[in-house]
Structures are given as C-alpha cells and as structure tokens.
Amino acid sequence: METNQMEPNFKAALSVEPIDGKYSCSLEVFLGDVKVWNSGHYSPFFTSERCVLELTKQGDLQLKGEKERVGWRTGTSGQGVEILKILGTGNLVLVDALNLTKWQSFNFPTDVMLRGQRLNVATRLTSFPTNSTAFYSLEIQYNKIALYLNSGRWNYSYWEFKPSKNRNITFAELGSKGLALFNDNHHKMAKISLSKRIHHPLGFLALGNKTGNLGLYFYSPDKQSDGFSGAFCGRGEVEMRELYGVSSVLRAAPTKLNISKVACAKFCLQNCKCVAALYSSEELRECHLYGVVMGVKQVERGTRWTYMVKVQKGSYVGHDNSGLKKWVLAMVGLIDSLVILLVFGGFAYYLIRKRRNNTATTADNTT
C-alpha cells in the first residue's frame, strides 16, 4: 500500500523481523526508507510460524499468529469499517462506507510526528533505548511542553517550556514550517520553526532513542549524495565549526591548558574520537575535548566559552559542495521565547544515514 505523490512516498507494509530466535510481526508505515509508525511500538507481537494481517467481516483490523492468535487489533469491530487506506499525510486510516474515519494511526503516536498530526495531554511521543528499561518522552501538559527521561517511577525533565502569562497549552500540531503550540481558543502561541534558509517543507519530527534529542527533518531532492566518505577524522576530511550562543553543561578535567582556540580545534581534528571541543578564553585558556555531543545548552553571546563541533567538510548549509544526503536535520528557530536547541552528534545540520545493511534486511523481511 503506497501513496501516489512525489518522492518519497508513504508506504504501509506488513513487516516480519527476526529477534532472538523469534519473529516480530507488525504493521508499519514508511516515508521513503524511514520508519515513521509501528503497530508494535509499545508492545511487540512475537510469533514463531506465521504473521497475517486481516480486516475481519466485523471491521476489526488484526495481526494474527499461529492458531489464529491475535497479537494486535484496532478495536473497531461493529463500527462499519470497510476500507483500510493510507493518506498523503502518512496517516493510516480505517473508514466506513461513507468515508468516515473510524480509526487512525495519528491517534497512536510512536517516536515520530508527521505533518498534520497533533499531540495533546492524552498523547505523547516515546522513544525506547536499546537494552534499557528507561525511555524518553515528549509530553504536552496544560502548563508546559517537556522532554522527560522516565525510569521506573521516576521522571526526570531535561527540557521544558512554560508559556508566559500562565497561558495553557491545548495541543501541538506539526506543520510544513515547524511545530506550533495552541491555547484553549486554538490560537497559536509559539512555534519551533525551520531555519529561514530552508526552503523545503518539513517532513517529520522525531525523538531519538539514543540521546532523547528532538529533531525536525525535511526532504531535499537537490541533495543526491549517498553520504560521507572516509573516517570522521583527519584535517583533510573534516573541520571544526563554532556553534554561537551555546555551551556544554558537561565538565571534565581540561585536556589542554594555556593554548589558543585555534590550537584547541586542531587537537580535536587530529583525534578521531573527538567530536566536539569547548574552549575558554579566560586566564587558564582551557580546552576540553568531548567524545560525544550531549548536555548542550544555550548561553548569552559574549561569554568567554566557545563550543565547536567536528563536521564533514562541506556539510554545513550555504556551501556549494554540500555532502548532505536527502534527509537533513534542520536547526530550529526562536519564536515567542520558545527555545529548543537540538544537536544530534554535533552540528545543527545533519543527515539521516541510510543503514545499508539494515535497509537490505528490512526489504527482505517486509511483505
């Protein structure tokens, strides 16, 4: 099942993936080769012999395993459902004879939010790190929007925004230019937007399962490169780019003292494990090297701290020989005092690498 639109298309597919000697059976939605919805996001359905998708005579969409065991269902039995279809927005819907929607995947968000999709106090994005009982969540609450790290009964907020003048948030909706927040009267209060230099419509918003970072992604048909070549080190392949107005809350013992900013950047360039550097122009002239980009925060310009990240040469916006792929992580803007600094692995413009092996595996296991 696939939408009829310009590349990339939305596709719905029945997927079977081997996991620890068993098979995960799920209904999935893809935007190009990016998975944007999965029926087994919260509770995977494992089967050993068969995986069948069935729309019953009663109108219930079900995933079945051996011996007719039902592992997932929409719960729409008796509602007159006749057709399953995927819309141009990527919304998977069940409709009746009058084309009235009885069930839609937009009401069951996973870790990705698509254009036209809404989040309210009853829904949230969730992302589950591998081999961990903790998980990340983006939640819409009446008085704030927040990112959480959830572990057992503990919830740790690592970013939040509270509207001024005690305004309540009713819902958030993703549009072609960013994520908009609305109040009780459906008036827009704030917006997380794409950079003004980005002329392509927003594709989706995603909550990463490794760091819990939130990213806005768009599709650029002009970027045809298959990705970066060479290792992420060596002065001929990479360069250091300064992120203005940001610093890091991570503080380790300085790697070098009494050196210049240029020398600090050079040390990171020559170290293949270094992905970022923090330099202080104060008396000790400290240089901190980092193997991961985390704990980045916004600071006032004019401070004596300089934060630099390592990027592939030509990967920043504005360079004619850009090495970016089609999917690009877009830097967010600042509107109505809403600040979210999103940094995935370093610089504000990044790409989604196609995992060639994983893509091949998915293709083999998707029916």
UniProtKB/TrEMBL annotation:
Keywords, comma-separated and alphabetical: Disulfide bond, Glycoprotein, Membrane, Signal, Transmembrane, Transmembrane helix
Residues that span the membrane, as ranges: 327-352
Signal peptide: none
Bulb-type lectin domain sequence ranges: 1-107
Gene3D superfamilies xref list: Bulb-type lectin domain
PANTHER family cross-referenced by the UniProt entry: G-TYPE LECTIN S-RECEPTOR-LIKE SERINE/THREONINE-PROTEIN KINASE SD2-5, G-TYPE LECTIN S-RECEPTOR-LIKE SERINE_THREONINE-PROTEIN KINASE SD2-5
Protein name: Bulb-type lectin domain-containing protein
Record organism: Hevea brasiliensis (Para rubber tree)
Lineage: Eukaryota, Viridiplantae, Streptophyta, Embryophyta, Tracheophyta
